Every structure is written in C-alpha cells, then in structure tokens.
C-alpha cells in the first residue's frame, strides 16, 4: 500500500498541463468495442481506470497498443465473454460494457460496477433505457444479463439526469433499428465527446449538449481517430490548489467554458481568474470571502469538485455551506479534514465550514477519489507533514499528481509500506 506525503505551506507557482478527461476516456474505450475496425484514441490520461479498462478489453479479445497518451484498439476479433466479477468491480465506468456489448453482440453479461463509494449509485435508469430498447435484463445477485434479438429505437425519458445512463443508452442505441430519443439527457462535456467519437465512427447522433438527444441507429460502426477533451475536474482541482496555496498557476490545455461554475466561485471568494482560449490563470489571495456551493448537473457546479473546494473554504473567514444535490452523502472527507483541524460538520446534504482555520498535517485516509483530492489540497495548505493513505483512490483520476505538483513547487512524495517517513523527500525528488 502506498502513502502520499506532503509537506505543506509552499506557495505553488508555474504552469501545469491538464490531461485528457477521465470521464471521457472511460466511456470512449468501451465505445471502441462497437467498431469493426481499428480505432486510435489520443490525449488519454495515464490513470488507473484507463489501465483497468485496457485489461478488460484485452480479456475480451481486443488488440490494444498503448504508448504515451495514444491508444490503438483493434476490436475486430473481440469475443463476448461474461465479465461478472473481478476487474469490472474496480471502476464505475465498467457499466459502459453493458451498452457497448449489447450494441455489438446483442448480449452482455457484466457484474455491477465499482467506483467511488459516495453513497447510493443505482443504475435503474440505465436498465430502463436498455429495456425500452427491447433488451431483456435480469440481475442474478449482481450479475447483470442483458439480451436482445434486435434493439429497436424508442423514446426514453430519464427520471434523473444521469451521465452514465445517457452515455450507455447512446452506446446501445447507436446500433438499434430506428430512432431513439433520450429526454432529460445529461449535458456534460464528456457526453458531447462520446457522441463526437460515435459520429466519427458512423453513428448519427444529434442534440448532444442539450437535454434531448436523437440517435438514428446504424448497422455498422467503423474505426476512427479521436482526441479526448481536457479533464475539467483535474483542471478545477489545480485551480483550487492555486487559490489554496495563495499561488499563481496557469493551466494549459483546458476549455475555460467547461469550468465557468468553478471560476465564478473562485472569483466570488476573491481569487483572480484570467481566461484565454485554452488556458486559465488563477492567482490566489491571502484573504477570502465565504461562498455557498450547490452542486448540480452541468453546467452547474460539479459534485466532483465540492470535496476539494470544501478544503479551500477553511481559508475563508466565516461560514460557508457546501450542498451536494447529486450525491447527498458525499462527505466522507469531512471527518478526515477534521483530523487536520478543520472546523466543519455535516448537516443533511450539506457541509457547514467555519473559517479561518490553519490546518495541521496529520495521518489521514483517502476514502474515495475526490476525498483524496480534498486531502491533497488540505495537505498543501497545512503546517507540517500530511500523510495520505489509500492513494489508489487518487490514482484512479489524477495523472502524474506528484510530478505535476512538484513542478509547481510542492514538496510531495510517495512512500511504500515499511519505508521510513524520516527519509522525505528523497523518494520522489
Ligand atoms: C465515470 C463517470 O463519468 N463518473 C461520473 C458520473 O457518474 P455516474 O454516471 O455514475 O453519475 P450519474 O450522473 O449517473 O448520477 C447522477 C445522480 O443520478 C442518480 N442515478 C444515476 C443513474 C441511475 O440509473 N439512477 C440514479 O438514481 C445517482 O445516484 C446520482 O444521484 O457522473 C457523476 C455526476 O456528475 C460524477 O460524479 C462521476 O464522476
Ligand atoms: C465519482 C467519480 O468517479 P467514478 O464515477 O468513476 O467513481 C469521480 O470522478 O469523482
């Protein structure tokens, strides 16, 4: 087991290149299953979720070459093997195997997904979508079996705005007979990215980025080349880090429009945020005003950034309230931040944060991916050394975290079990 060590208190400055989006990558790789010839995907982030998906595709008979940030996938000889357990449990996005395999083979046997433990994460809307398209879906103790002789396009109204259900239905419906309309669809940029690759493969999808998506099914999808959009959640995390360390960080390879809700909240606190076509500069301040945050589907404030933002709010004088309307119990980071001296508590679906608190380094645990990101933000602000265990959660979503932070001036390194923490920072630096 690895531990992340951070010696806090440095002002972080410089530039950082943002990687390709995790939540696009983990949908685009399963989407490649639908092609009948090789695909090339560029700007892939080197993160754990991507590596696990590669192994899953290889288990299914795909030929995958992965060098740097580019992946070639040849799905022409894939087999439809049941995947009830094992790797599918290690990430959330394995649920996209359901839509992709159903679209390609008319059948999928896939275990229920894993992913961050951030409260209940049902997939009833995915199932509703597959059933509406004509699939028979059964759940045998967590082993999902989906089967359809012929998927047929239809009108599907999502009861909740769901990123995963919208994408999964798009994957299956691309190969259905006739037209599918998804109403109350999610509008996240990653959905637009998935539709872009599917359309390049020969699909006919319109309306993405609005809440009504129209998919005209086609018989055949072929290989194509696609470059993944930048990761707005990784970018948002570095913006928060700039503000938290009173730093001055310029993010390269970003789409500022995808981050409007985050820029707005940072400005409301008093940070300086400057945008150009494909970069964002954040200049932190020594004093901040409190802000309230309410997470919402895109273009609202992303739930995936409320945890790191909560750590930053310990620097604002007074009471800030962070309400998560998407995952109402996504607050496992609060107890860990309290171990570092934060004055915060959970009330219903909100975290109430009293500032200003000077955080202190402590031994803490990354309970999930963005809880881990919150602890990194806190560790960078804290006095002394912060030791974050269960780093594998953080590795699901942040490429080269230590390297990027080190280049901005942070003192951060990784330790294996049994290593002497007195050796810092030799291991990484
Ligand atoms: C791999 C990936 O892209 N993960 C993202 C995706 O997760 P994911 O796709 O799992 O999240 P959804 O958008 O589906 O979930 C949104 C809300 O709808 C609920 N729901 C969802 C599906 C369903 O069938 N029934 C249902 O009730 C969920 O419990 C949640 O309250 O979007 C989330 C919300 O932006 C992000 O936090 C995750 O980072
Ligand atoms: C919740 C997240 O990921 P996943 O849906 O893959 O668990 C996240 O990226 O913050």
From TrEMBL:
<feature type="binding site">
    <location>
        <position position="92"/>
    </location>
    <ligand>
        <name>UDP-N-acetyl-alpha-D-glucosamine</name>
    </ligand>
</feature>
<dbReference type="InterPro" id="IPR013792">
    <property type="entry name" value="RNA3'P_cycl/enolpyr_Trfase_a/b"/>
</dbReference>
<dbReference type="GO" id="GO:0008360">
    <property type="term" value="P:regulation of cell shape"/>
</dbReference>
<keyword id="KW-0670">Pyruvate</keyword>
<feature type="binding site">
    <location>
        <position position="326"/>
    </location>
    <ligand>
        <name>UDP-N-acetyl-alpha-D-glucosamine</name>
    </ligand>
</feature>
<dbReference type="GO" id="GO:0005737">
    <property type="term" value="C:cytoplasm"/>
</dbReference>
<feature type="binding site">
    <location>
        <begin position="22"/>
        <end position="23"/>
    </location>
    <ligand>
        <name>phosphoenolpyruvate</name>
    </ligand>
</feature>
<dbReference type="InterPro" id="IPR036968">
    <property type="entry name" value="Enolpyruvate_Tfrase_sf"/>
</dbReference>
<feature type="domain" description="Enolpyruvate transferase">
    <location>
        <begin position="7"/>
        <end position="405"/>
    </location>
</feature>
<keyword id="KW-0963">Cytoplasm</keyword>
<dbReference type="GO" id="GO:0009252">
    <property type="term" value="P:peptidoglycan biosynthetic process"/>
</dbReference>
<dbReference type="GO" id="GO:0008760">
    <property type="term" value="F:UDP-N-acetylglucosamine 1-carboxyvinyltransferase activity"/>
</dbReference>
<keyword id="KW-0808">Transferase</keyword>
<dbReference type="GO" id="GO:0019277">
    <property type="term" value="P:UDP-N-acetylgalactosamine biosynthetic process"/>
</dbReference>
<dbReference type="Pfam" id="PF00275">
    <property type="entry name" value="EPSP_synthase"/>
</dbReference>
<keyword id="KW-0131">Cell cycle</keyword>
<feature type="binding site">
    <location>
        <position position="304"/>
    </location>
    <ligand>
        <name>UDP-N-acetyl-alpha-D-glucosamine</name>
    </ligand>
</feature>
<feature type="modified residue" description="2-(S-cysteinyl)pyruvic acid O-phosphothioketal">
    <location>
        <position position="116"/>
    </location>
</feature>
<comment type="similarity">
    <text>Belongs to the EPSP synthase family. MurA subfamily.</text>
</comment>
<protein>
    <recommendedName>
        <fullName>UDP-N-acetylglucosamine 1-carboxyvinyltransferase</fullName>
        <ecNumber>2.5.1.7</ecNumber>
    </recommendedName>
</protein>
<keyword id="KW-0573">Peptidoglycan synthesis</keyword>
<dbReference type="GO" id="GO:0051301">
    <property type="term" value="P:cell division"/>
</dbReference>
<dbReference type="InterPro" id="IPR050068">
    <property type="entry name" value="MurA_subfamily"/>
</dbReference>
<comment type="function">
    <text>Cell wall formation. Adds enolpyruvyl to UDP-N-acetylglucosamine.</text>
</comment>
<dbReference type="InterPro" id="IPR001986">
    <property type="entry name" value="Enolpyruvate_Tfrase_dom"/>
</dbReference>
<feature type="binding site">
    <location>
        <begin position="121"/>
        <end position="125"/>
    </location>
    <ligand>
        <name>UDP-N-acetyl-alpha-D-glucosamine</name>
    </ligand>
</feature>
<dbReference type="GO" id="GO:0071555">
    <property type="term" value="P:cell wall organization"/>
</dbReference>
<keyword id="KW-0132">Cell division</keyword>
<feature type="active site" description="Proton donor">
    <location>
        <position position="116"/>
    </location>
</feature>
<comment type="pathway">
    <text>Cell wall biogenesis; peptidoglycan biosynthesis.</text>
</comment>
<keyword id="KW-0133">Cell shape</keyword>
<keyword id="KW-0961">Cell wall biogenesis/degradation</keyword>
<dbReference type="InterPro" id="IPR005750">
    <property type="entry name" value="UDP_GlcNAc_COvinyl_MurA"/>
</dbReference>
């Amino acid at each position: 087991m690895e531990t992340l060590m951070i010696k806090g208190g440095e002002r972080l400055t410089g530039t950082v290149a943002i990687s390709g989006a995790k939540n696009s990558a983990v949908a685009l790789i399963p989407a490649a299953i639908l092609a009948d010839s090789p695909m090339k995907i560029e700007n892939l982030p080197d993160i754990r979720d991507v590596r696990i998906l590669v192994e899953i595709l290889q288990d299914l008979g795909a030929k995958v070459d992965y060098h740097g940030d580019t992946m070639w996938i040849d799905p022409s000889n894939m087999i439809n093997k049941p995947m009830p357990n094992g790797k599918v449990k290690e990430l959330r996005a394995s649920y996209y195997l359901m839509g992709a395999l159903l679209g390609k083979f008319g059948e999928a046997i896939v275990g229920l997904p894993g992913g961050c433990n951030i409260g209940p994460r049902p997939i009833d809307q995915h199932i509703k979508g597959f059933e509406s398209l004509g699939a028979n879906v059964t759940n045998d103790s967590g082993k999902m079996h989906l089967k359809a002789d012929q998927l047929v396009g239809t009108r599907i109204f999502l009861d909740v705005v769901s990123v995963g259900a919208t994408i999964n239905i798009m994957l299956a419906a691309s190969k259905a007979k006739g037209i599918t309309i998804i109403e109350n669809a999610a509008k996240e940029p990653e959905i637009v990215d998935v539709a872009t690759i599917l359309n390049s493969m020969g699909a006919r999808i319109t309306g993405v980025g609005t809440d009504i998506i129209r998919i005209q099914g086609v018989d055949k999808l072929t290989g194509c080349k696609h470059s993944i959009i930048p990761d707005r959640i990784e970018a948002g995390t570095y913006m928060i880090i700039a503000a938290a360390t009173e730093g001055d960080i310029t993010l390269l390879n970003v789409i500022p429009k995808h981050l409007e809700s985050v820029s707005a909240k940072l400005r409301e606190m008093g940070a300086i945020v400057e945008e150009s076509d494909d970069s964002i500069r954040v200049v932190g301040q020594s004093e901040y005003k409190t802000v309230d945050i309410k997470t919402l589907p895109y273009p609202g404030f992303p739930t995936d950034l409320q945890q790191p933002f909560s750590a930053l709010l310990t620097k604002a004088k007074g009471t800030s309230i962070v309400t998560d309307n998407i995952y109402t119990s996504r607050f496992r980071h609060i107890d860990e931040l309290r171990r570092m001296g934060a004055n915060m508590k959970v009330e219903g679906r909100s975290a109430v944060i009293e500032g200003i608190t000077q955080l202190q380094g402590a031994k803490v645990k990354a309970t999930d991916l963005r809880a881990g990101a919150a602890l990194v933000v806190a560790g960078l602000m804290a006095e002394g050394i912060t030791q974050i265990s269960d780093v594998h959660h953080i590795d699901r979503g942040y490429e080269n975290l230590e390297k990027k932070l080190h280049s901005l001036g942070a003192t951060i390194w990784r330790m294996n079990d049994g290593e002497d923490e007195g050796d810092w920072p030799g291991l990484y630096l």
